Amino acid sequence: MSSAAQSLLAEAQELLDQRMDPLDHADFAERLASCPEALEEVIALRAVDKLLTAPLPTRIPRQWWLAPLASAAALLLMLNTGEPDIPPAILEPELIVQAPKPEEIVATPAVLHFTQSTESTTLSPPTTGDVLSLSITSSRTIRP
Amino acid sequence: MEGNLPEEIPFLRAFLHRLVVGCPTLEVDDLQQQTMDRVLQYQHRYDPARPLRPWVQSIAFRIFLDARKASLREPTTLATESVPAPPQDAVAPSVSSEDVQRLLAQLPDVQQDIMRRFYLQEHSVQEIADATQLSPGTVKSHLHRARLQLARNHQAEAWQ
User: Fold this and answer.
1) Whole-model pTM?
2) Which residues of chain B neighbour A10 with C-beta distances below 8 Å?
């Protein structure tokens, strides 16, 4: 492989490392179009990246589970799972969210629970300083 | 050249399928048709001493870039103004968690671990380096090898 092709490959990998689409860079795309030797491999790399970054039924985007509690509450409402209304106190920014690890997030039937660190099974209005854990299960799939 | 073109069509389609991953508004059939039209239009520029496939792929790639740019510029109509448009780089519809698990299972353990952290847990290179006690350069090296391996494994047959 020519040095120009190797350079394009390395550049594509670097952009993917930074979670950027190489084809969003007009200069890169133009150079790639002029280098058939690198074209197929770069496109295959990008396709792998696209597949692996696709939202999956079993993956909740990190910004969701690391989001402040207000976002989690919005998610709860959005999923419309029939949980009780979010108590206003839950939106207080002083509350701390203890995010679950990704492997603890299971996506099957639509249920979304808040549980408090006391492991109470019912949702009672939290008070400032409470540590809440959020578990999300969703029936939403991307497409068959 | 025209005699060899039919043999190229499956490879062209595989290439186009990989190109449109993440571009739900673009259709492989349309891109294939436009590519074949342009190939025939410019066949006098083809150098028979060189392989045909990369030449066809270059044409397909330029057509894809133009189509992608046009799709990003498309005006919003009144009917869809109230509905958020899907992101241009949304997801390939056929992806499943099994596909991802199958892809990753083809890799050596260390690459699997790093790819899972990067793609499934969305950790940065630096975060992975901190967690695995590898240098960021080594983490990148594993990421690059893993992507290349997966890309080569699926060069011809996957995503069709």
Assistant:
1) 0.64
2) 144
